[in-house]
Design a protein that fits this description.
Helices cover 25% and strands 26% of the residues. Among the domains are: 86 residues, DnaJ domain (Helix Hairpins, Orthogonal Bundle), CATH 1.10.287; 82 residues, HSP40/DNAj peptide-binding domain, CATH 2.60.260.20; 91 residues, Sandwich (HSP40/DNAj peptide-binding domain). The protein is of the alpha+beta class. A hairpin with a 2-residue loop joins strand 6 and strand 7.
């Protein structure tokens, strides 16, 4: 597609959206039109295929905020319909926009390639903004991943821990330029963007890192001996990181902007921390709830009563044990669990375990013998056998 065709095409009209349409409106319009005109749904219809390519082309420009701004700026500059100048007899002629990009030398006040130039308006769209007017693009810093091990209590309550991290930082020997003289040149392949586009058919294009400059947009004529021309060097640092309350084992936490620094004004990368949590000798965890198993005596389970239950990092709570409580029953102490994202707490789930004494003195044995005689008519396994016969 020529530059002239690009400027004269009304992509907003192609998608049927106003010029102030939001990204969501543009996406919705594109999806609707793409479904209606997709070649698979219109086999053998050449006009539908052409329409689908035009729709895809429009979405490629308007769906990218940077390309959309460049497109809007270009159309505003050239009057929404091409750069036209009055000719003899009131006629008009189309100015060849290609002349503005080829490095032609303009006169005073002209648009030639003598620096800055109109080429910068279209550089990001056509990779044609070479020369003095080309600017290398900012480069985002790398993401870093680290690991930390917390105690069970630290995971529930939150903790601040030191993390020692190694990452690629701007080389101090060449100030991150990659060139020992500090004067790298713009990569001619990607024109400083660090990326190259390749067609994939159907009006779509894919973007890959430039292999010549390895995505930096710059090439060192005299590579720095320390970083070998990469502009980056390995560096270690220690950072105090706050782990929020309520994290679980193997959870990954993202800390925005705490990764490696960006290049040429680019954003810092992110830090991802994988949390490992040690087991607790008493408490367990189930989602936002803590769990604990509490032993009770046979008499407490049979007759009922009140039992004290420990909590994590706080005073014990008292729970009422109903008479006839079976082994394995779970009760709930509300608000004594893990911290949720909204700041509230889950519950403490208390499971009762009837403790059977290993040894009995004569008095206890006599009491149990009396109890067994008193309940001899009751068979706790009767229902079990009835159910087994009916199966």
């Amino acid at each position: 597609m020529s530059t002239k065709d690009f400027v004269e095409k009304d992509y907003y009209k192609v998608l049927g959206v106003p010029k102030d349409a939001t990204e969501a409106e543009i996406k919705k319009a594109y999806r609707k039109l793409a479904r209606e005109n997709h070649p698979d749904a219109n086999k053998g219809d050449a006009s539908a295929e052409a329409r689908f390519k035009e729709i895809s082309e429009a979405n490629d420009i308007l769906g990218d905020p940077k390309k959309r701004k460049e497109y809007d700026d270009a159309r505003a500059l050239f009057g929404n319909g091409g750069f036209r100048a009055g000719g003899p007899g009131g006629g008009s002629f189309n100015f060849d926009l290609g002349d503005l990009f080829g490095g032609a030398q303009g006169g005073a006040g002209g648009f030639g390639g003598g620096g800055g130039g109109i080429g910068d308006v279209f550089g990001g769209l056509f990779n044609r903004g070479g020369g003095a007017g080309t600017r290398t693009q900012p480069r985002r810093g790398q993401d870093i991943e680290s690991e930390v091990t917390l105690s069970f209590t630290e995971a529930i309550e939150g903790a601040t821990v030191p993390l020692r991290m190694s990452s690629q930082q701007p080389c101090t020997a060449c100030s991150g330029t990659g060139d020992k003289n500090g004067t790298p040149r713009v990569c001619p392949t990607c024109v400083g963007t660090g990326q190259v586009s390749r067609g994939s058919g159907g009006g779509f294009s894919l973007t890959d890192p430039c292999v010549d400059c390895k995505g930096r947009g710059l090439i060192a004529e005299n590579p720095c001996e320390v970083c070998k021309g990469s502009g980056r060097a390995k560096s270690s640092r220690t950072m105090q990181v706050r782990i929020p309350a309520g994290v679980s084992d193997n959870q990954k936490i993202r800390l925005r902007g705490k990764g490696a620094p960006g290049e040429r004004g680019g954003q810092n990368g992110d830090l991802y921390v994988v949390v490992h949590v040690d087991e607790h000798p008493v408490f367990g965890r189930k989602d936002d709830n803590l769990t604990v198993t509490v032993p009770v005596s046979f008499s407490e389970a049979a007759l009922g009563g009140e039992i004290k239950v420990p909590t994590l990092g706080g005073p014990a709570v008292t729970l009422k044990l109903p008479a006839g409580t079976p082994n394995g029953r779970t009760m709930r102490a509300r608000g004594k669990g893990a911290v949720r994202k909204d700041g509230t707490r889950g519950d403490l789930l208390v499971t009762v375990e009837v403790a059977v004494p290993k040894e009995l003195d004569d008095k206890a044995r006599e009491a149990l013998e009396t109890f067994r005689e008193a309940t001899a008519s009751e068979d706790p396994r009767a229902e079990l056998f009835q159910a087994a016969k009916g199966a």
